[in-house]
Amino acid sequence: MKSKLGIIPATLLAAITAVGPVPMRASSHMDAPLITRDPAANTTDVYAFVVVRNGQKFLDVALAVYPHQEPGVGPNKYNFDPNVLYQIFLANPTTGADLVAYQFQFADTFKTQNTILQSYTGVVATNGDAAQNFTQTYTVTKVAGTASTTLGNGTVPPNNQGVATPKYNKGNDGNQPAKDGVGEAAGLDDYTSNAIATLSSGYRSFAGQRDDAFYGDINAIFDLLALKSGAQRFDSQGGFNVHAIVLEIPLSEIPGGEQQTMGVYATTSRRATTVLTDGAGSAGSAPTGNWVQVGRQGNPLFCEAFVALKDKDLYNRTKPTSDATLFRTYAENPELGALINALVLKGNVAPTTNRTDLAAIFIPDVIKVDLSTGRARLAGGGATNSVLVDDAGYSRLSIFGGDVLESPVASGHPFRLPGSAIGADATKFYVPGGWPNGRRFGEDVIDIGVTAVISDLRSLPLTIRSAAGIDNVDSNDAILNKVFPYTTTPHNGRNYDHNPRQAASPLVNFATRGNIGTGENILIGGFVVRGTTPVRVLVRGTGPSLTSFGVANAVSDTIVQIWQGSTILAENDDWKTTQQAAITATGYAPLNDREGAVLMTLQPGAYTTTIRGKNNATGVGLVEAFLVD
Amino acid sequence: MFGFLRILISFAASGVLAVAATANLDREIVLAPQGGATTEDLGVTRWQERAGARGADAAAFAGLGWAYIAKARRTLDAGFYKLAEKTADVIAAQFGVTVESRRLRAHALHNLHRFQEAEAVARPLAVETNAAADLALLSDALVEQGKIPEGVEALQRMVDLKPGVEAFSRIAQVRWLKGDVAGATEAMETAFRAVEQRETETQAWLLVRLAGFALQRGETGRALVLAEVANTRLPNYAPALLACGRALLAEKKYGEAIERLGRAEALLPLPEYQWWLADALAAAGRGEEAALVEQRLMKRGALEDPRTFSLFLATRRAAADVAVRLAAAELNERADIFSQDAVAWALFTSGEVAAADRSMRLALKEGTRDARLSLHAAEIVRAAGRTQEAREHLARAKAGMGTLLPSERVWLDAADRELLATN
Q1: What's the per-residue H, E or C state across chain B?
Q2: What is the rounded distance in angstroms from the CA atom of residue A164 to the CA atom of residue A568?
C-alpha cells in the first residue's frame, strides 16, 4: 500500500482502513482532464461607448479574453488562438437578435523554429521585425445577414516581455514599469501605435496584449462576500494582462444610424470536428467542423454573479435571443441580492423579487448603448492625476456618481430618464454616462452593479442605495489611455506589481459630482478612514474651475464643511484664506480662489462632507477628498 | 403484535443510526487535515475549511471533492480518488444525491478503474444533463470497457457541444486507439494549444501523450524534448520522467534513461515503472540492481496493476497460470484491446495457442498501432502457422520500435531474423 494520504488523525485510521485498500493504479488510457479552463476563448469583458473623432461619431467596442496573464511568463504562450473565432456582435437591444457580426480570426507565423526563443530573438524595434520571431496577424470580417465583407487585416504587437520589448515601458527601458496611459495618440508607445489598423469604410482595429482594465476584489466577493479593508484589500486583476480586441465602428456603418440604442455582446467559438476521420490509419486533419460557441459575454457580472452554476455552460453556448426564456429569472430574482442582504447588509434591504429594473439591464444580456448621445466621458488616471486627468464629469460610478449624458431622441434605452428624476434639466432626457449605458474602460462595475442590486430602480423616483467602495477597490491599477485603443499598456514581465495602487491605503480618494441647490439641496459626500491610525485628509469643494473642463452651469463659489455625525469639524469658504501654504504643498490645491478646501488630520471613523454655494449660488459642484499622506 | 412492531422499530432505528454514523464518519474522513504545501494541498485545505464551516452547503463539499481529484491527478495517488468518492457519499447523505455528487462519483470510480460502476452512474447522468462533462465521463467509461462505437458516439456529442481541451484530448486518445497516430497528434496539439498556462498538470499530461505519439512515429528527439518540457512544467511528475526515460532508451542513452526512470519509480512504484527501470538496468549490464527492482515488482504487482503484471509474467515466461488468471480478471472489468492482448499473451505463453489467437484477433480489431501488441500478435500467428501474417505484424512492431522495452527490441530483432530464415 503506497497511498500517501497525508496527516490523518489516529482516530480515523481505522475507519479509512475499513474503506479497503486503495492500490495505486496505472492511469487508464482515458484519464483525460475533465474540467479545464479555456483561456484563449474565455471572454472576460466587453466594452462599448460612443466616441467623436475629427467631428465624426463612432461606436467603439472591445472584447477582452485570456484573463490572468502573468506578465513575462515564458515561453510566452499568451496569444490569441487561431482555432478560436472571436466575434463582436451588434444586436437588437430588446430581442437580442444579431444585426451585424464582426469576426476576428488569427494566424501564427514563426520566422524560425530552429530556436528555443519562441517569441523574440532580440530586441523588438518595430512590430514584426526580425527580432519578433512569433507574430500573429488577423483578419476582420463584417457579416450582416448572408453578406460577408472583409474589412482588412492587422498585426498583433509583441507581448510585453521586458528587455525584448522596451518601447512599452517607461523611458523605453525594458527594466522599467509599463508606460502610463496617454491623452493624445502621439503619446502612444510605438508598438501600440503601429498596431492600430486602418480598415476599409472608416473602421479601425487593434488586437494585442493589454493591462486587464477590470478591477475588484473578486476573491472576497466569492469568498462569502467577506469583504476586506485596510491592508488586506486586494485587486484580483491587478498586475495581470489580458488580450484585447478593439474595433472602432463609424456610426454611418450601423443600420439605423445614431437615432437608436444598440446592443453589443461578444462570443468565442471553437470548431467541432469529427472524432474519427476516415478510419484506422488515416492522416489527421485540422478541425473543419462547424463553429461551436463556447463563450459569451454581454454586460459585466451577469454570467458570473447572477446565473447559477448549473446554467453557466448553457449561457455560454446560447445566444441572447434565448435570454428572456432561459435566464430572465436570474435577473428578476437575484441570488446576489439575497446574499448581500444576509451577509453584508444584515437585513432585507435589496429587493430580491420582481426586479424588472435589473431585467431591463441584463435581459437580453447585451450592453445597451444609446447612440444618440454626445461622446462618452473617459477615464484617465483619476480626477487629480498628474499624468492624465479624467474627463471632467467622468465618474467610475457612472450615473450613481452623477455622470450622465443627454439623450436627445427617444432612443429606447431602458434607463433614459427625465432630467427631473436626477436633478438635472427637467426639459431634457438623460442616460447614464457609462454602464448600464454602454461600458467604458475604468468603470467600477462592481460598485455600479451592487448599487443597482441594492437600489430600487423600478419606478420614479428612483431609490438609490449607494454601494460605492463596497469591495474597497476603486481604481484600475494602470492609467488608461484616452485615445484608441483606450485600454492601456500591458504590464512589463520584468517589472510589475499585482497590487500596487491598493497598498494599505486607509482612505480611497473619492469625488462626487452633482447639482447644488439652495436650502437643504446641497451636495453631500461621505468617506471612511479605516484602520487605527489618524490620517491627513484634504477635502475640497470644486465649483468655478469646472468651467474650464467644459462643465456648463458650474456653481460660482463654494463653501466646504467636514462633519462627524452632527458635529461640524471644519469649514472653509476660500481655500487661500487660512491654509494656503499647507494646501499648496499637498499638490491638490483648488484651481480657483473662490473654492473652499480643508486640510485636517482625522481619526479613523466615518465622515460627511458638504458643499454649498456661497450666497445661495446654485449649479454643478464637485466634492472631493484626498488622502495626503 | 405490539412486541413485533417494537422490534421492527428497533431495527429501523438502529439502521438509521448506522447510516448516520457512517455518514458522520465519512464526513470526518474527508475533513481530516491532509497537510502539505503544494497548490493542490492548499486547495484541499481551503475547501475543507469551507466544507467544515457551520452551514456549509453541498457546493462546498463538491469543491472539496474536486480538490481531491486535482490532488489525485497531481500525485497519481489513488487514495485521493477514494476520498473524492467518499466526499460524494457525504454530499448524498447530507444534501441528497445531486448532479455534482454523481459527476464526482463517476469521475472517481473511473479513475479507481471501476469502469462498470462509472458507466452506471454516468449513463443516466449524461441523458439527464446532456452536459459535455457527463458525456465525457460516459465516453471514458465506455472506451475503457472496449465499447468503442458507443464511446465514440458519446464523445462526438460532447465535441459538438463543447470543443475544447477536454474534447480534443479525448479525440486524440480515440484516434490513436483506432490507429490514426497523425490524427491523434493533431488533436492533442489542438488541445495543448488551448490549455491554460497555469494548469501545469494538464499541460504536462498533454505533453506526455504527445511525447508518446512522437516516440511511436520514431521521432525520438522530439519525444525527448516534449517529455523534458513536461518535466519542466511539472517537476517530479512521474509520467514525464517515464516518458523521458523511454525516449532516452530509444536513443540507447542508458545512463541518463536509468536516472530518469529511477526517479519516476521512486515517485510512483507501479509495475509499469518498475518494469521499464529493471529492463533498462539489465540492458546496461546492471543485472543485480535490475533484480532488486523486479523483486519489488513481484511483491506488489498483482495488487497495484494486475494487467501490466500479467504481461510482465508472461513475457518472462513465469507463473503462466497467475498471468492468465490476472488477465482474465481484468477482462471482466474492462474488455478493451489491451486486456484482450494481456489475455492472449498469457494464454500463448501457457501453451494455448488457439485460444491466444482468438483473443489476439479481438485485441487487433480496432487497428491500434502499438508495437507491443504487434509483437505479441507476430509471435502468436507464427505459432499458429501463419508466417506471412507474422511478418506483417513484425513490420508494424518495427515501425513503432521506439516504444518497446530494450529487451523487447532484442526479441523483435531475433524474431525478425528467424522469420527471414524461414524463407
Answers
A1: CHHHHHHHHHHHHHHHHHHHHHHHHHHHHHHCCCCCCCHHHHHHHHHHHHHHCCCCCHHHHHHHHHHHHHHHHHHCCHHHHHHHHHHHHHHHHHHCCCHHHHHHHHHHHHHCCCHHHHHHHHHHHHHHHCCHHHHHHHHHHHHHCCCHHHHHHHHHHHHHHCCCHHHHHHHHHHHHHCCCHHHHHHHHHHHHHHCCCCCHHHHHHHHHHHHHHHHHCCCHHHHHHHHHHHHHHCCCCHHHHHHHHHHHHHCCCHHHHHHHHHHHHHHCCCHHHHHHHHHHHHHCCCHHHHHHHHHHHHHHHHHHCHHHHHHHHHHCCCCHHHHHHHHHHHHHHCCCHHHHHHHHHHHHHCCCHHHHHHHHHHHCCCCCCCHHHHHHHHHHHHHCCCHHHHHHHHHHHHHCHHHCCHHHHHHHHHHHHHHHHCC
A2: 57
Task: Check CB contact of A41 with chain B, cutoff 8 Å.
Answer: yes
CA distance A587 to A536: 13
**More confident position, A31 or A236:** A236
Q: Which residue has the cell 464629469?
A: A393
Query: Tell me: the pLDDT tens digits for A91-121?
Result: 999 999 999 999 999 999 998 877 766 788 8
The predicted structure's pLDDT at residue B210: 96
Q: Considering only CA atoms, which of A155, A196, A242, A187 is closest in space to residue A484?
A: A196
Give the closest of B35, B174, B368 to A276, CB-based: B174
Q: Which of A219-228, A617-626, B154-163, B374-383 has the lowest mean pLDDT?
A: A219-228
> What whole-number distance in Å separates Cα of residue B51 and Cα of residue B61?
5
Q: Which residues of B touch A274 (CB under 8 A)?
A: 156
Q: Where does residue A620 fall: left (phi above 0), alpha (psi -120 to 50 degrees), or beta otherwise? A: beta
Q: Which chain A residues are Cβ-neighbours of B107 within 8 angstroms?
A: 34
- pTM for this predicted structure: 0.79
User: Over the stretch B26-41, which tens digit does the pLDDT of each residue have?
Assistant: 899 999 988 888 889 9
A318 in contact with B, Cβ within 8 Å:
no
pLDDT of residue B1: 34
Determine contact, residues B209/B169, Cβ cutoff 8 Å: yes
Chain B CB contacts of A21 below 8 Å: 303
Residue A506 has pLDDT above 70, yes or no: no
Within 8 A by CB and 6+ apart from B54, the residues are none
Cβ contact, residue pair B34, A5, below 8 Å? yes
Cross-chain residue pair B202–A285, CB shorter than 8 Å: no
Q: A244-300 pLDDT, tens per residue?
A: 999 999 999 999 999 999 999 999 999 998 898 764 444 445 667 889 999 999 999
Q: Which three cell numbers stand for residue B272?
A: 509499469
Q: Which residue of B29, B143, B196 is in closest CB contact with A39?
A: B196
Contact B395, B376 (CB under 8 A): no
Question: Is there a contact between A475 and A373 (Cβ–Cβ < 8 Å)?
Answer: no
For residue A398, how many other CB atoms are within 10 A of its CB?
Answer: 30
pLDDT of residue A589: 79
In this predicted structure, the answer to whether residue A165 has a pLDDT above a threshold of 50 is: yes
Q: H or E element: which one contains A514?
A: strand A510-516
CA distances from B194 to A267, B131, B133, B167 (A): 16, 20, 17, 11
Q: Which ipTM did the prediction report?
A: 0.81
Beta bridge partners of A417: A430
A23 with B169: Cβ contact below 8 A = no
Question: Does A18 score more than 60 pLDDT?
Answer: no
Query: CA nearest B193 in A: which residue?
Result: A81
B365-386 tens-digit pLDDT: 999 999 999 999 999 999 999 9
Work out the minimum CA distance from B251 to partner chain A, whole angstroms: 21
